[in-house]
Amino acid sequence: MLYTYKFFCTRESLKGIRAFVEATLKLYVLSEILLNQLILAVDEICANLIIHAHHCNPADTLELTIENTNGDIYFEIHDRQQMNFDWQAYQKPDIQELVKTGRKGGMGLLLVSSVMDDVEVKPEGEGSIWRLHKQIEADVKRPVA
Amino acid sequence: MQVNTSAEDNYYRIALDGELDASSAIAFDAVLQEAVETGHHHLLIDCQRLTYISSAGLGVFMSHVQEFEEKKIQMIIFGLTTKVLNVFQILGLDQLLHITATEPEAKAQLNALHL
User: With a threshold of 0.90, does the pTM exceed it?
Assistant: First the structure.
């Protein structure tokens, strides 16, 4: 089953994105912590794209899809306008260095890479797809009736 | 998200109510900055009603660690729910901040640090 959510590139969209992920994943019995981690990962990527790639331009839109295939959850964030990040070249920041410099940013992608099993960014036309994967079979006791 | 502040005894309490994300972190940062600028040195961050935190929220806390150390400002975070605490733990930030489970523990730790 594929679930789709389209949203405008504003910070205010983040609340709706999280609500969509939560509502979709509540079809399965996940631990509260895992559910929150998955919501967090999607929120971080969407926030990065909205703020840094699209500069909070409300005329721009992105699309999120969620698919569960036998316990493998895939989140895809489709940006049809920009190819904006080389995940392979991403270097994890040093937390102590962030503290020393007082920098506010830099932890989002670190959180994503910590909680997801796989992350990739692929070109799609003139844009890109962020694809996040998490194996959750062990946590899915049963679909909620 | 709502940010409520109150001064009590020797403490300055900042209570977070709702979701601390890339949209609301700016407001929290402004409140924290204002607390410092008005001379408060003992900050209690009440997170009992904080339902979500993203890296933007974590970034607000972490960006002040060095500054607070230099200015001898103590900040204790208390009342984190299990799932919110887990977000701090993912990157080990719970080891770099002062976090307690309850308000009395937070006040006790603040007093201990102050002494």
Answer: yes
